[in-house]
Structures are given as structure tokens and as C-alpha cells.
Amino acid sequence: MLSISRTLALPESELVERFLRADGPGGQHVNRTESAVELRFDVVRSPSLPEAVRERLLARRDRRLTDDGVLVLQGRRFRDQGRNRDDVRERLVEIIRGCLAAPKKRVVTKPSRASRERRLAGKAQRSRIKQGRGKPGSFE
After folding, report:
1. In this model, does residue 28 exceed pLDDT 70?
2. How far apart are CA 59 and CA 63, in angstroms?
């Protein structure tokens, strides 16, 4: 079980891990060991996710999310397969935790009178500066 919060946990059966060869440093065994990890989690078909969390995950517009609703994470930061596996799982937990709480609704406000006046005063000052940049003798 992959624990997300006190009330939410993902069973191991919902996570699909694939091990592949990582690029980068690795010494003599770099071309023989499969230290990189690709973790796939089917967001659309997961029975463990609450519907609200599923909708927030799918609405994220994340490039790691496929058209079928599968979240694909790759871990190749470390030379060790176990550390890459733990890293990818931690990132999955953080992504799901970020979608647990509903985002706050924005309260529409109007700019204050003083802020409007400051904005207009700044625009007038900028206008005077730019008017002073004309050719010499072109004052009217």
C-alpha cells in the first residue's frame, strides 16, 4: 500500500513499474543494469481515488498524463534502482496530495480609488518623460 493521506492509500496492484536502462553516469555497468524506473498510474480507472481528486488530477493539463488518463513518471536521478523507485513513488504521492484539497475560489475585488489615482499619476509621469524625448526645438 502506498499511503497518500490518513484516509487515502493506493494498493500496489494499481501501480505498474517498468525498469529500463538509464542514460548518464554509471560506471562499468551502465549498459547492463536497468536502474531507471517508469511508473504508470491509471487515474481514470483507479477505484481507490475519490471522484473529486480524480477530476482535479485530470484537469491539471500535465504533460505526463496520457490521452487515456494514465500518469507516467520516470525516475533516473540516481544510479540505484531502489532509490529511483522510491523517488518516483514520492513524486506520485506529492502530485496526488496536491489535488486532495479543493482550490479556493477567487473573490472578485475592485481596485481602490487611491490605487487608480496612483496608476494614472504614473501614466502621466511616464507620458511627460516620453514627450521630453523629442527632437530639439520641436516644442509647441
Report:
1. no
2. 11
φ, ψ of residue 6 in degrees (nearest 5): -65, -30
Match domain 2-98 to its CATH number in 3.30.160.20, 3.40.50.150, 3.10.20.310, 3.40.350.10.
3.30.160.20
Strand partners, 61: none
Sheet of 15-20: strand order equals 15-20, 36-42, 70-75
CB-side exposure of 132: number of CA atoms within 13 Å?
6
Residue 34 dihedral angles phi and psi, to the nearest 5°: -105, 85
Place of cell 504508470: 40
Contact of 16 with 63, CB cutoff 8 Å:
no
Q: Element (H or E) spanning 122, and its range? A: helix 113-131
Task: Assign 140 a pLDDT band (cuts: 50, 70, 90).
Answer: low
pTM of the model: 0.69
Tell me the per-residue pLDDT of 40-72, one tens digit each, with 9 for 90 and over.
Answer: 998 888 888 888 888 888 888 888 888 888 889
Cα distance between residue 15 and residue 2, in whole Å: 9
Maximum CA pair distance of the chain? Answer: 81
